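Reposting from the mailing list since nobody answered there.

I have sequence plus structure tokens for a pair of proteins and want to know whether others read the tokens the same way I do. The first protein:
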Amino acid sequence: MKKLFYLLVITFSCSSFGQNLIPNYEIGCFVDYNKKIINGYYDFEYEPKTSLNVSYQASENFTKGYYFDNNGLKVNGLLKYSQSDRELKFKINEKDVEKSIRASESKGYIIGIDTFSVVKNVIVIGVFGDKLSGKSEFAENIENIGGKQFYKFIAEAANRSSYAKYIVKQSEASDFETFQSNKGKFKKLAADIFGSDPILKSDIENGKYDEEDIPSMIKIFKYRKLYGRDQKIFYNSSWDETDNHDEGAYYAKIESVQDSIFHLSYFFKNDIKIYEGDFTSFYPHKKKGVFVFYYPNGKIRKQINYINNKPKNVIEYFINGGIHRRYFYLEEDKIMYTQVNNDQGVSIFGSKGSMGKETFNDVITGKDVTYEFKDQQVKNVYYNDVNGDKVYQLCEKNAKPDDFKDLQKLINDKLKYPTESVQKYNHGYALMKLIVEPSGLVSEVELVKGVDMFCDVAINEFLSQFKNQIIWKPGKVDGVNVRQEIILPIDFSIIDTSSYKNHYYNFNPWFFQNMMMQQNMMRAPMGRY
């Protein structure tokens, strides 16, 4: 059975009619559980309002890794950092008794893809405010820029909330220095570290930044240097920034820098262009102006205009270059269409310009999909299956489970985060397709967008027992039960305090805020910052 699921994952990059596709990107036209339309491609702005969740809680789990003792001896085992006492917890195996390792007893440790060093001169938050720690501390290595090594230190305050402090070591011979909350001390150290960048220096002197902005300042400092050297930014398959070019699945080129605006173009590792646009910040990413998305053949697929970091106006194109749809966001979840054309460039809207019907071929799945519009909004979406039966993707009253919590409980009981994926820090959304019959039973299940090989195998094994577990309320059109295709997003998330390199969370204000909330609830960091 395992071999079968691995085969499913390996052949996942081919469509049902034989064409080679880019895995987890060219997925076909769908409508997800939240009524969000996916027009053939899985794009970075996808952010489902409701999703199922498979999470790995770093604060509650030991993770494979190793530490170095004071003699430099590598010790393998299971590790977990405790924010409360700022010590490393270690076990040789699950049955072993836990022991504590102080920073003074170690030269550092590694968990998954992240390295933690021993630092000194750390400013911690005491009962009466900032104070100098009198001992060595563990801190995560987050960046090395021109010999300047930056660290992130995490601990628990007296009120049990988590906080972060950023530390720098300017050279091997220099001391560790902590960026402080005191404005005068912060400005002095920040100007010393980032002063070689004229724009950063000016912004520091003008009071634009404070202690909480250090991650953004590091990114800007790094990216300007990369731009000057015409170097790329590499990302792994989960869109986390990586210095290991061999594990890069994507890369970005900094095309231009004007003051604080960076124009970046993003590519697959085989140089196929994905999209480009302007950013004014990188922690989180803040988008400005028009972003252009491309078909794999290089033609423009979509343009999104961002105002105040939110999408406002969108133009979608056919692969022949003609305009397919224009629409704007009236509210976060409400889209109004101002233009819809067929592939001959003819408007499908009637004389009132607000209703009509179009049928187009989904070149990825091979299906002819029909959209029905009324009052400038999509009302119904459907296609005919191989037997000629109509299957709705969106209808007047969508199919729903009796209780969404039952679905999440089933996920909690049956679908576990693979250890191999946690070790590699692979995360992201999977998209699960199911067909809900008029009876409310699920007849078909399929994974249409995965996370990595190990997660995909786990999902496929879960899907094999999914059909008979949950009864749905079927979709309805004109009061009649209909057959409907449902796309359920599953969020595979590793919950820790590490978000510095995380493209996935930093790209999206909602994700970023959620990560910050999670950090305040956390008790242990484990990877990415």
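The second protein, same order (residues first, tokens after):
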Amino acid sequence: MVERWRPRAEIERMFEEMDRLLPMPFRWGRTLPRMFTMRHGIDLYETPDQLVIKALVPGATPDDIDISLDHQTLTIRARYGYSLPEDEAEAVTWHFQEIDSGQFTETVTLPVPVEPEQVTATLEDGILTVTLRKTAETRARRIPVRTTGANSEGTSGA
């Protein structure tokens, strides 16, 4: 029979054994195994008119996500993953439990000022997209070039 090798489970067993053997002040607790869990990715890119932030929030619903903007600092708080209803969870026997769930907070300092009333957020397929319109001063704009001189008649076609 082929048995699935699960390195994370072995590491967790090792920490559980260390917790059992070490006196209380020296216990690792559950913090070190968390180092082996998923890191939520954040992308930030800029277009001529806006900033766009994309964040991974697998299993989240709009009710699980809180977004706040304070000047040029955007904070995303989210719960992700899933959990079984309590009565169902008591009746199951887990053979594998590797899907991560929990909550996270990501804070992003925006590279340019944005219009606080012109922020939108959408959630699709576990990816949160936050679109922030740049202030008029920071948006790219085309500057017409004029000619100077006695024979000029308006602007050039630049």
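Reply #1 (J.P.):
I read it the same way you do. The CA atoms of residues 58 and 70 lie 25 Å apart.
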